[in-house]
Design a protein that fits this description.
With 202 residues, this protein is of the alpha+beta class. Helix content is 44%, strand content 17%.
Amino acid sequence: MDISEPARSLAPTLHLTVLAALVRTTHPMSGRGLARLLDGKASQRGVADALKHLVSQGLVIRENHPPSASFRLNRDHIAAGVAELLGELKDALRQRCSLEVSSWETRPAWAAFFGSVARGEGDENSDIDIALVLCSDTEPLAPEWTSQVERLAERTQAWTGNRASIIAFGHDEWLDSTESLVEEIAREGITIWGHRPDRRPR
C-alpha cells in the first residue's frame, strides 16, 4: 500500500487520490489548493485533469468564481460513500491495529506508529513502523508476548501489503533512553493503543 496516499493502492492514476483529498476537506478548494494539499505528489495539471473527469461523473461539484473555480465532493452522489472510505484508509489501519492490540492477553503500556507512516510519507515499499512500550511487569521474551507481536506483524502486512517493522522497549528503557530513535518516537508517535509514558527529564 502507498503509505502516503493509500487510494493509489486501488488505481495508479490521480483520480482516486484527488477524490480522497477532497473527502478530507471541509470547504471548497481550488485545483491549486488541492495540489498543495497533496504536497508535491501531483502536478497542478494532473490535478486539473483528474478534477475534470470527476466533475463529468458528478462526483465533484465545480463552483465558478471567475477567473478561478473551486471544487467540492458531491456528498449526495451514490458513490460518495466509497469516496469517503478512500479518505479514511489511514484511520482504518490505525483502528485495526488498535483492536488487535486491545485483544491481547498481555498488553503494552503504549503502542504507536512512527517513521514514514506517522509522517504521512513513504510508499508501497515502505515498512509500517510500530513501537511498543512494555509494562514494567512484562517479560519481553515470554512466548505469549512474542506470539502476539508476531501476529500483529502478520496481520499488518495482510491489511496493507507492507512489511511491519515492530520494535519493543522495556518500560525503564523507554523512560531513560537517550537514543535519538526513542526521542523521535516520543515526539512523532501516533497512538494506536494505550497512553504514552512520560519520559524522565534529561
